[in-house]
Structure formats: C-alpha cells, structure tokens
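Structure first, sequence second, as always.
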C-alpha cells in the first residue's frame, strides 16, 4: 500500500472535472474518477467559494467516510478550514450556529436527541391522511394531455405544503426561503451574496420563532421550542439553524427525487409499465429513484481532524473532503448494471440519505411522500410524455444538489 501526501493545489483552469458541463451529466466523469482517481484533489465550489478539496467516489470509501468521526462537520471550525483552502480571499460564506448537520459529538448527539423528540415518526404518521389528501388534490389539478411544469406544480409544491404544515410555517414564506436557498446552493453566487442570503433567511426564521413563542400551536416549530433532553433545550441560534435545516432539507431533496423519478420512468417506459402493472414494487421503486439520481450530488462539507487513510491515499489533517453520493450510487462494484433504472432492484444499498450519525432524520417522511405521490400519478395517468426534447432539460447549476430546473410533461 502506498501513501500519498498532499499535492500542490491545482490551477483552477486546469481542473475541468467539475466545470459547467458536468452538472448536466456527471456520470461519465464519475466513471473515470472511480477507476483512475477514486480519491483525488480538485477545485470544488458548493456552499462557499472555490476551494481545493478531496473528492471521493467509490461506494465502499464513501460509506466508510460518512461514518468516520475523524471527519468533522463542526460549523464553528468551518471558516478556518475554508480560509485555508479557498482560492480567493473572500472565500467563506460566514459561520453559522450549530445544527445537527454541522456539528460533531457530543454537540451533535445532544442536538439530534432534542430534535428527534419533536420530529417523531408518530408525528409523521399522523399526517399520512392529510398527505394523501394533498396528493389527491394536486394530481386532480393536472389537466390530462396539457403541458405543465412538473417541477413547479407538483415536485416542489407537494413537499413544500407538507413541510410547511408539519412545521407550522405559512406556505407563503417559502417563496423567499426558496430564493435565498437558491443563492446559497448555486455555484454562480458570490460569497457576499451567500452571506446576505443566510442573514435574510435567519432573520425571517427568528421572527417565526418569536411568533410561535407568543402563540404556540400543534406544530414542529412549537415542539422544537419546548423539546428538551435531560433538561437541555436548543438555544436561540441552534433553534433557528435547526429550523433552517429542516425547512430546506424537507423540500429540496424530496422535490428532486420526485422530478428525477418521473423523468427516469419516462425515459424507461419498460420500468414505467412494470411499476404500473405491479404496485407492490412502489416502495422499492422509490429507493431506486433515490439511487439512480441522488437528490444530493456531493454530500455537505467535511474536513479531516487527523490523517485519514482512504484506499491507497492518505488525506492529511485539516483537508476538505467531499464524498459523492451520485458516484457511489452508480458504483458497478456494488450495483449490477448501475446506469440502468430497475424498479425491482433488491438489496439497494444507496447512500442518498447518508450513513452513520448524520443519516437523514427526514428519510421516513421523504419515503412516505414518494410512495403516496407516485402511487397517485401511476393510478391516474396511463401515459407519461416529455413535452420537450430530453436534451433541452436543464439540471440545476449546483454541485451539492442534483435536480432539474423544470420538467415540462404531458400526462394523460
């Protein structure tokens, strides 16, 4: 086994792996990386400025690193690491209060326990009848044979209504939150624009929390305010940061899963017919949609607190690491015929919800939403078609999220 030390930082113009065309179809690049450089250093821009970072692509390595606590996600330490590796001086989007997503044990353990006391499976299951009614209403509004944008009318609307009702946040708030989150996740946004978006979003959510303190209700925001573990509660910053996380994670990834799943079925009519003929495949099909097009491309930023061995490469301490969920989910070492959609795939070991202590707390809700909505669409519309050529579809200009900008379709 060989050991590789940190190489010189690559010049931005020389690193084209994650360039503009990558977002439209990352899989050929990932196939090459898994074979030739499964642990490689690249120029990457996700939620901050361009940084020199390690990108890991093999399923075995990705799964291991997702659970490796030698990699930190602590929000307070992040600015120092970004500054160390940023290509430009103004490379940080600023520091934020800790949340479950950006914290390490023991803080993560405390935060997750408190949030889990409010965000329970019982609360989610209690919403099932309402979620089913909402799906019925949204599908009922589709005009058979008329072109519409499935992203805007269904894929985004459905989870936004659900998470809005769960949290107790007015759906009207999501227009601003979507805009701010779009700035945060776009590789085109500057660090200054990202800092401004964070400030606006946190200020808005602070007002929501203040209103709920005055008039609590039977919703998740009120429950988070009151939730405690051994006498510990979320402080003000943690509460707002956790709320921001739950709101964005509660609709972004689910919306991507819905729209990319519909597209995948349209492009694989044999699988669409198979699923329609056997509805018992639906739960497994949702898992396959998550594998085939992970709603997250690169998992959120991590960095090494000490040297970490990954295959034949040693990543030194204080290095940024991104693991690619899209690449891992199409690793031929784990998945037979990985570039083919198979709604009957068994032992689907996809990593779209993560692994280890940061496994997505909202995974059961996302699965429920997927099963309910796809069930309604399949039962109501026998014919699914794209309204534009497939090569005109545009994927979001983001290295973190994997989602369509729009999806014009005709269902009849």
């Amino acid at each position: 086994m060989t050991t590789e030390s940190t190489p010189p930082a690559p010049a931005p113009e020389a690193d084209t792996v994650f360039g503009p065309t990558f977002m439209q179809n990352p899989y050929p690049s990932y196939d090459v990386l898994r074979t030739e450089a499964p642990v490689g250093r690249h120029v990457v821009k996700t939620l901050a400025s361009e940084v020199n970072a390690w990108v890991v692509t093999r399923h075995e390595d990705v799964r291991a690193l997702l659970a490796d606590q030698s990699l930190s996600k602590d929000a307070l330490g992040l600015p120092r690491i970004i500054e160390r590796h940023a290509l430009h001086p103004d490379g940080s989007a600023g520091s934020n209060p800790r949340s479950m997503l950006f914290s390490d044990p023991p803080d993560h353990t405390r935060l997750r326990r408190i949030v889990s006391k409010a965000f329970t499976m019982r609360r989610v299951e209690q919403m099932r009848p309402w979620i089913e009614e909402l799906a019925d209403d949204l599908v009922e509004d589709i005009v058979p044979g008329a072109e519409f944008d499935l992203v805007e009318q269904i894929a985004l609307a459905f989870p936004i209504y659900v998470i809005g009702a769960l949290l107790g946040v007015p759906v009207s708030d999501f227009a601003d939150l979507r805009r701010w989150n779009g700035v945060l996740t776009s590789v085109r946004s500057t660090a200054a624009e990202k800092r401004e978006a964070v400030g606006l979003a946190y200020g808005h959510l602070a007002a929501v929390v203040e209103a709920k303190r005055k008039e609590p209700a039977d919703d998740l925001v009120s429950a988070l305010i009151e939730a405690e573990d051994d006498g510990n509660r979320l402080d003000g910053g943690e509460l707002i940061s956790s709320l921001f996380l739950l709101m964005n994670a509660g609709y972004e990834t689910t919306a991507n899963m819905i729209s990319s799943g519909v597209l995948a079925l349209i492009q694989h009519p044999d699988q669409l017919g198979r699923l329609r003929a056997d509805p018992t495949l639906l739960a497994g099909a949702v898992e396959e949609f998550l594998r085939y097009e992970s709603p997250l491309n690169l998992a959120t930023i991590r960095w090494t607190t000490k040297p970490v061995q990954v295959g034949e490469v040693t990543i030194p301490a204080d290095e940024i690491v991104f693991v690619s969920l899209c690449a891992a989910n199409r690793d031929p070492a784990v998945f037979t015929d990985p570039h083919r959609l198979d709604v009957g795939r068994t032992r689907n070991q996809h990593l779209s919800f993560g692994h280890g202590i940061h496994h997505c707390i909202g995974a059961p809700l996302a699965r429920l939403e997927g099963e309910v909505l796809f069930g309604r669409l399949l039962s109501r519309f026998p014919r699914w078609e794209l309204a534009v050529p497939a090569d005109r579809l545009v994927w979001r200009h983001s290295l973190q999220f994997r989602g369509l900008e729009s999806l014009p379709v005709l269902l009849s």
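Margin note: The first strand starts at residue 39 and ends at 44.
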